[in-house]
Amino acid sequence: MSVSTYFDTMDYGPAPESDKDARAWLASHEASFGHFIAGRFTQPGGQLEDLDPASGKRLAHLTQGSAADVDAAVNAAQAALAGWQALGGHGRARHLYALARTVQRHARLLAVLETMDNGKPLRESRDVDVPLVARHFYHYAGWAQLQESEFPDHVPVGVVGQIVPWNFPLLMLAWKIAPALALGNTVVLKPAEDTSLTALLFAELAQQAGLPAGVLNIVTGDGSTGAAIVAHPGIQKIAFTGSTEVGRLIRAQTAGSGKSLTLELGGKSPFIVFDDADIDAAIEGVIDAIWFNQGQVCCAGSRLLVQEGIHDLFIARLKKRMEKLKVGAPLDKCSDMGALISPVQLERVRRLVEQGVREGAQCHQVALDVPPGGCFYPPTLLTGVHPAATVATEEIFGPVLVAMSFRTPDEAVQLANNSRYGLAASVWSETIGLALGVAPQLKAGVVWINSTNQFDAAVGFGGVRESGYGREGGREGCYEYLKPRHRLNRAQRNAVSATPAGARKDSPLQGGLVDRTAKLYIGGKQVRPDGEVSMACHAASGERLEDVGLGSRKDIRNAVAAAVKAGGWSSATAHRRAQGLYYIAENLSARADEFARRIALTTGVSAEAARAEVDAAIKRLFSYGAWADKYDGAVHQPPLRGVALAMPEAIGVVGVVCPEEQPLLSFISLVAPLIAMGNRVVAVPSQQAALVATDLYQVLDTSDLPGGVINIVTGKSAELLTVLAEHDEVDALWVRGPAEFSATAERLSVGNLKRCFVDHGEVTDWHDAAQAEGSEYLRQATHVKNIWIPYGE
Ligand code: NDP
751: CA distance to ligand 1 center in Å? Predict the structure, then answer.
């Protein structure tokens, strides 16, 4: 070949990375692994095969984790817990720092092994995955160091079960174990069956770096091993990354168990290009968004939305750029794309693309010249896709981009949000005002402006809707592995139950027409319940008082519809929301005596106790009025030229089921933080003391709160809870009361994966601000959206 030919083609020659060290490590274990429990490998069982996806050849034998193996790992983690916590933040910081250094020292070995096991190009494992792994341990070494000063009111959750998928095996391990260990928990982790090798290597290296035995345990195996971890009673928290389907199963399985749960699930993230975007940069962005890691990325920008004026030009240039993508041997340093994880995944991608074509899409694929025997699939672009087509709605989890056009920014937002998922989004426009205007409107946990697939340990990552809940990374990621200190005293507090005698007793029902009956409060109006049925309210002494409306399924539906319609509250200024709360406090204050009498009558507490409850409720309203414009986000400075804005956002419509005790104070303690943060609420007040809530209608009427922000449906708490939990337009549930209520909420929330904030039957002392007010409530009332804004040339 002549020099000019080389210049014309700019072809790269092969540049394979050596797999010698990785093979030597495999050989040192005779390519056969047990679990890593209590600081050492168990006897290999040899039931599973770990294959190289690029050749189909076996790399190692792995062991199928049984319930007994999981039990042994949990026992080891429990035994190690006290010692690990006794080290204190500084002691753990030193261990995390040692892990970061270990990863850096063995970076090449880890990257090569990851590429062999997963099929991803070495360029990515070497330049993205492994450096980010080290970065996570450094970052969380810092949080360990600062734990005592930054989280004085929190304690570690305990033994944590973590289940990770195959797309970023080592990186997901780091995202999970770095915060867990840093904050004083011990871990049982299950890697994906297809990609367990780097987790095992990491465990070995960690042990060499002095990590105490039992602090990190790795149990290999398939989904049944994962299920055994989820079910184990010795585990206090489950952190899962994987498919929405399995996330749902885990939510259902843990419902009512008291285990805390974070779910990082699937996505169908939009990549929005406005006509004033830098087209070359946006095309490079698309390449990275969908063909990074063969598209097997939960936050892959898999739905391309291009503004009509530049659509055809953009697609033509994108096709040209696709031709330059090099698909080939993953260990070749010149490969842009490697192999998909497995024949099963390859088949799934193939099937979905065929279905897309059957449903009317045009398919453009790059010709492949790849090694035989591997799970290779070409970069694929589907155009002319209908927004309702299967390929536009299903997560394909492969190198397949679907493209659509839009006309206006509003239409872009509508199309982008037309998904059951809400993980990430990219917005491309040179007009910063447009980009920053669109970002808050997108239903997603992460928004990248003029960039894509940015990750950093300091910046939280996670989704909304069916993409799950919880955040990994940053300060918010710390809270996922902590619990409020006051929960430690749970048993003690439950002994001093604040519930007045008989308060949980069902009130007898009275059928018939409504007569002198307090109505429901829906959309800012007092409305009669559907069917006009009422429920008798009694004084604590047993004397019959007035009736209240007996809310039904239909009433909850109306209340949710009113709350959905009041969406403007979420974009009202914080100042405006604060005012709303202060007005409620002021109006309640004007009628304090009346409320105190009502509380005393319905709950049987003394006049002084009742008055103290009203005063505490007023004070609490003031607190949340104060917090409304002070619960700020943060500006992160990840290692790139740019910033990430971490902005707390309202979750949306929240269903609240109040407890029986302290009916006014508990109602206010639950509703006030939610509306302070811009949520709209459908509240089911105390059943026994419903009259206290119905008295609030007039207070709300005169408080200048838009209709639909607070809706109150009186009735049978258990029945109304079920309706709220099953309603797809309710985004989160806050439930207090008997433990069965919490279990019902968690079990029935699997439909649209509502975030649940429940008490598992634990009694709250609503007077104690440490338990009943403040950051935990504000955090639960919001999710953090991280908006990445790179700058400079
Ligand atoms: P899964 O959700 O099944 O796997 C994720 C992890 O959960 C793996 O470790 C898996 O074990 C484990 N697991 C499976 N079943 C259970 C269970 N019942 N209880 C506890 N743990 C369980 O994803 P798949 O690997 O099957 O991939 C299927 C699809 O999921 C993909 O095509 C993709 O669309 C999506 N996916 C999304 C990911 C994301 O990050 N959002 C990541 C991976 C997949 P094992 O692998 O050993 O069976």
Answer: 18
What distance in Å separates the CA atoms of residue 440 and residue 452, rounded to the nearest whole number?
16
Contact 300, 267 (CB under 8 A): yes
pLDDT score for 792: 80
> Any residues with CB less than 8 A from the CB of 712 and at least 6 apart, and which?
520, 521, 522, 559, 683, 684, 685, 693, 694, 696, 697
Is the Cβ atom of 167 under 6 angstroms away from ligand 1?
A: yes
Task: Indicate whether residue 253 lines ligand 1 (CB < 6 A).
Answer: no
Q: pTM for the full model?
A: 0.93
Chain mean pLDDT for the chain:
94
Q: Are 484 and 768 in contact (CB under 8 A)?
A: no
Contact 133, 307 (CB under 8 A): no
Distance from C-alpha of 602 to C-alpha of 589, rounded to nearest angstrom: 20
Residue 50 Cα to ligand 1 midpoint, Å, equals 16
Shortest-distance Cα residue to atom 27 of ligand 1: 243
Q: Read off the pLDDT of residues 238-290 as tens digits, 9 standing for 90 and up.
A: 999 999 999 999 999 999 999 999 999 999 999 999 999 999 999 999 999 99
Who's near 351: CB < 8 A, 6+ residues apart? none
- Which positions are annotated as active-site residues? 264, 298
In angstroms, the CA 393 to CA 415 distance is 11
Query: What is the distance in A from the centroid of ligand 1 to the CA of 638?
Result: 29
Task: Please check the confidence at residue 494 and state whether its pLDDT lies above 60.
Answer: no
If one residue of 163, 349, 377, 750 were mutated to test the ligand 1 pocket, choosing by the most ligand atoms within 8 A of its CB, it would be: 163
